[in-house]
Each structure stands twice: as structure tokens, then as C-alpha cells.
Amino acid sequence: MKFSEKWLREWIDPKVNSKILHEQISSSGIEVEYVEKIKSTFSGIIVGKIVQCVLHSQFPNLKILKVDIGKKELLNIVCGASNCCNGIKVAVATVGSTLSENVIINKRILKGELSEGMLCSFFELGLFVNDNKIIEFPKKTPIGINVNDYLSLNDNIIKVSITSNRPDGLSLLGLSRNIAAINNLKMSPLIYRSVPVMFEKKVDIDIQDKKECINFLGRIVQNIDINVDTPFWMKKKLFFSDLLSENIITNIINYVLIEIGQPLNALNLDNINNAIIVRMAKDKENIFLENNIEICLNKNILVVSDKEKILSIPGNINSCFVNINKNTKNILLTSSLISKKSISYIIRKMKSNKVLEYYNYGIDPFLQTYAIEYATDLIIKICGGVTGPINTKKSNSVVYNNKIRLYHEKINKIIGFSFDIIIVSKILHSLDYQFNFQEKFWDVIPPSWRFDILIEEDVISDILRIYGYNKIYSTPLKEFLNCNKKHELKDSLFKKSAVILINQGYYEVINYGFIDPKIQNLIFPNKKKLLLSNPISQDMSCMRVSLWPGLIKNISYNKNRQQNSMRIFESGLCFSVDKTKNLGVQQEFFLAAAISGNYTKENWYDKTRKMDFYDLKGDLESILESFCTLDHIEFRREIIAGLHPEQSASIYFKNHFIGRIGAIHPRLETELNVNSSTFLFEISLSNFPDIKPLKIQDISKFPTIRRDIAILISEDIAVCAIIKKCKNFFINKKVEINLFDIYSCKEFYNKKKSLGISFIFQNQERTLQDNEINLMMNDCIGALNKKFQAVLRK
Description:
With 794 residues, the protein is an alpha+beta fold. The protein has 6 domains: 2-39 and 155-182, Phenylalanyl-tRNA Synthetase, Chain B, domain 1; 43-151, CATH 2.40.50.140; 205-394, 3-Layer(bba) Sandwich (Phenylalanyl-tRNA Synthetase, Chain B, domain 3); 404-470, Phenylalanyl-tRNA Synthetase, Chain B, domain 1 (2-Layer Sandwich); 485-684, Bira Bifunctional Protein, Domain 2 (BirA Bifunctional Protein, domain 2); 705-792, Ferrodoxin-fold anticodon-binding domain (Alpha-Beta Plaits), CATH 3.30.70.380. It is built from 19 helices and 40 strands. It has a 7-stranded mixed beta sheet with strand order 27-31-32-36-35-34-33, with helices on both faces. Strands 3, 4, 5, 6, 7 and 10 form a 6-stranded antiparallel beta sheet that branches. The protein has a 5-stranded mixed beta sheet with strand order 12-15-18-19-20. It is elongated. The mean pLDDT is 88. It is an enzyme of class 6 (ligase). Belongs to the phenylalanyl-tRNA synthetase beta subunit family. Type 1 subfamily. It is found in: Cytoplasm. This is Phenylalanine--tRNA ligase beta subunit.
């Protein structure tokens, strides 16, 4: 909401300067987005009076004027304005004065006549809409006075924004109540403007949907002059609020909206057939707006109609049939209280506007009649006309009796020091709370415009913002911290991982914990989703179960920007459904990485190749080796959602599942816009009980001995099982075991494969002999034969 400071001070004028006033608005819980100082863009303009007005002899559209500006000599001015006539007081730009956009006025000859100045319209002074009419000042305006001083244009424009729990901040009345309470001032009561009823005619109101429309008020105003000009005092205020319209009725409605926060609507009465019906639209029913715009509605949209057609939708979205135009003589002025649920459907369909914003935040139901009377009073004074009675139709009686018990001990506990009972009572009184103090507590009822006050803490917050947060002295908090070793361990593991990955050329990324549920369904179709009830946007409405969706989105983004080689990693919490946990949600800390595209940049000495599964597996093993012994890590081939069925594996640490690795599934390549050479891993850092201790030992001075074997085994046997058996066989000896070859061909019968395995022996105390190495190797081959029916190839 935007408004001028002078307009606010008409409601409440504390004896403080502008800077302090702006700070008080902020401290009351209403954010001041900015304050813009307004200065007039013209100078040298004074008030004059036309004492003679004669038509030009050759050009009847022009008039030759004699203008008195309070000096001895009258000015001779040529003017073509339609409202220029003898006896009116006008704004005169004398020779040497400056208009908006730095236009300087000089003497000149117009159509053969000398013109010693210019009569100005508001538009030529840089104000309001384009208008050919010159300014007409009231008869009592003194001649010769500076127009800038007379119009009081120098002002501060304040732009405020509110949170959803402070709808009272969307009106000057609401702001004034807060400022009055802060400065210990008494607000003047609202002056009830009761307009005399001149006839008894009413429009019948039928509320058919009683849940969505709580009440509806309507009043007929007849014989108005819609073509009168908006008074300057109203024009100026609405201009600074960016709500100035060419329609006087719209201007009056906007004026009431800013002043007291009550949205009103005006319909052309002559095009309404008998009664007003408030109902839900029929499916595929249309409303016809101006400029041949036709909108198809659905059964969730609340509408105001007569017996034949839809007249309007809440939010002043009026049909072209009932819009106010230059020929309108009779209007129906309405006020309605609509449920927030219904407003939310309208916003989704029609998009939000200023009036819908007020409805969405909430309006005071006890000011509706006052708003109708206030607007009617302005219409009669400016446009003339006669009025009928206010017809009120309520579907539900509004009962506002939210009694809250406020304990003095609770206030002291939250604030941190003893708060005087008298001060609390004074603040509650200044905020218009109804309250009754007992020995240890108050029973309070918030005012009708603060329907956001629901619990004891809300009342305490209200008290504190009036008391002043700056008056509450800081008390150091005493806290006994129970440091969680698990968190320290996670941080240590991640730091080690990050150093290793960065040295391998990876970049760290950070993504939101909220993702698009459609993406999650694509990657993990069988996992339960944690959906947010009030998401930032639809594509951020689901809690992530994995870090992969964010990494894949990063890969796609960079691919679209011609990046051919990508290595990225991320760490963070992921969330899954687990009814055994607090709130039914399991939180787990993960580390994930993704690679895609070329292994190296193009160069002259090396062939370009695509990254593969083993590039990522090697980087992962470097990380795991810094945590634990790789003998405790096992990669098991498994089918994993989102990964290629032939290039995926689960990762186990001491037979506990810790993560997964693999190539992205082919079905996701096109849908998620990634390359086939995209590989990902993800491990849980919560499953490592401790970091591998650093051991320092001497390097053996005795030589190593190597033995290589080639064995035939069934293709169904996993290679890791063979290696594990070999390591277990030599568990008490220092032997390095490596797989260096896998080979299969048609010559091997019964689906066999050949494994080439190297054994490197070394002893810390002596040189090993060939005979004992051969004996150990024969025993190892025998163990492999017994368990896997492995055959030694000759």
C-alpha cells in the first residue's frame, strides 16, 4: 500500500519528525519498503484571475484573456482550453517559469496575438492524467499566491507491505491505531456519516452459497452525475497512491479502501434484472468483461448475478453489462464478506488484484455498514443524487469473541524480566482489547480488526511491539550444550570428502530441499512423497528423498549452456516417511556426486573419451578409503530406481546399506535432458560409526613376492565374492590382492568366465621363501575350488 505522509497525519499526527514516524510504523510490525520524497517539478506558477475573456477573431477555438496576477499590469494570454471563461481563478505560468520536464515559458506571438504566459492544467504541472482542461481554483483562493505552496505538493510517499497476520496494516485507520498506541495518543472515534434515505426502494439479495459468502450489503444511489471532476484533494491523495482513475465512482471506492481498508463495488443499476444472487458459477459458465474478453468459469468460483447473467466476481471484476460508464445515472453500491477459501479459487483463476489482496488478508466485518455510509456521503457531496436504505443479507452471524487467557508469569518468562502489570493493562487498553484482570492473569478479547490474534503468544507479541523492542535490555542466555558427536563426525566426514572431490575437479553445488514432485515420481516412482501444505511454488512442493534430483537439474542446466564436462557434488539432509520417527519423518545426511560428458577437455596428446562408471567408482573409493578400510566396503549389483539396470550397484559397509551408484536410466535421459554418460552416487554419512584411526607403521625392508593366477568360475558368481574369500584366507598375513583381468569367450563351456588375480606378499621380519608362498597359494586355490568350484587355468 502506498500513501502520502500528510494523508496519514490527517488521521493521527504525533509530535515526531518524519524519520521517527517511519520507524514507528516499522516497529508496529508493518514493513516500510521505502520512503520517496516528492517535490514539485514546476516553479514560478501563481494563482491568477481571468478578468476578460474574448474569442479570437479568426480562430474561434482560441480565447484572448486578460489575467490579474496581483500586479499593476494585467497579463495578455492566449488560451485554447474548453473550460476557460471570465471570472475563474487559474494557475498562471508567467514568463520565465518552469513546467514539468523543464519546459520554460517565454513571450511569444500566437495566431497574431501576444501571449505573456500560459494557463496550466494538472497534466502540464506533471500531475494526474492527460487533461485539456485548465485548473479551476475555488473562489476564495487568494490571487498572486504561489501554486506550489497552495497545493502543498511537497510530501513523503510511504510504501508499506504486510505479512498475512497483519491485515490491519492495509489502511490508514489501522496504521493510525498503532501509531496512537505507540505515542500514547487517543484516536478520535470514527464519525458515523448517516446519509438521509430519500426513497425505500431496495434490490433483493439472495445468498445461495451461505458458506462462501458470509454477508452482503447493497444500497441504491440514483440520479448521480458521473461526469463531474474528482476534487483536487482526493486526486492528489489517490495520485500518490497509484490509484487515480478517470472514473469518479472508482476514485471514491479507492479512497475509502485506503482510508479504512474496506473494499466496495459499484454496479450499473439499470442493467440489473430485479434481484442480486450470490452463488457458485456453473461449470463452463462465462463472464463477459470489457474489450470483448470472455472468461470461462468453473463451479469453484463465487459470482454475483441476477436472474439472467453474471454481474461480477469478488475483487471488483465486473461484467461489461454493469460497468460504470459516462451514461450511468443509477448505481448499486455493495459490500461483501467472502470466505478466504473462495477468494483463493478466484486468485488462481483470475490472478490477484488490489481488492482481492484485501479480501485475502481479511477485512473487519463490523466496518462494512460504515464503509457504505462513508462512500455514499462522498458520492452525494461530489456527484449529487439521492439514496435508498442499506439492504443487509447475512448468511452467518459474525460472532467475534476469541477470549484468551494471558498470564503475567508467561509474559515475564518470554520477555526475560518482570513486566509491570499497569503497563500491560495500559497497552492492552491503547490497542482496544477488552480485558479483565484477575490476580495472576488477564482474560482478553482482541478487537474485531485483529482476527489474527489467536493464542497467548500473539497477545504478548502485540504488547512488545507497542512497548518497544529497543526498551528490552539484553540478558545473556545460559545454555548447557550437549554436543552431539554424531554431528561432529558428519562434519568431519564431509570435510574430508569435499577436499578429495575438489582435488579431483568437482564443484560443490547447493540446491533447495524442496523439489518438483513430478521429477521425484520420474526418478523414484515407488517412494512415498512428503508434500508441503503451503509451498513456495508448485515445482517446490515436495521434500527431497535424495540429492539426485537437484544434481540432475544442475547437469541439465549446464548442458544447455554447452558445458561438455561436468563434475559436481552436494551434501545435505534428505527426508522420507517413517512413522516410528518424530513427526513421522526420517532425516538423513547424504553426500552425492554426479559426473557427465567428457573425461578430459580436448587436447593434442590424449584422445577424448566419455566418462564411465569406473571413473565415478574410483572417486568414491578414494572417499571411502579416507573413512574406513576398503575391505569393509562391498559393491553389490542390484536394480535401483532411476539407474541403468545393467550399470547399478548398492554399497554396503560391514553388511549395512549405505548408498548406491550407477549410470542414469535410459528412460530418464530425454525426460530430464541429460547425457547417456551421466553417472551418480549417493552415500549416507550417518552410517559410519567412527572414522578410521590414523596408523603409522614402518615400511618393510624385505622384498615383495608376486604370484598371479587365472581361474575359471561360473558367470553367475560375483567377482567381489571371490576377492572377499581370498582376503579372508590371508586375513592374518600381509597380502595385497588385486583383480587385473576378466575374460570370457565361446570356448569356455557352461557359461564360464576367467579371472586374473594378483597376490603380492611381504613380511615385516624376513624374506619369504618360494616353497611357503607356493604352499599358501595351493591352499587358497583349494579353498576357492571347494566353495566356488573354481578351476585353475593352465
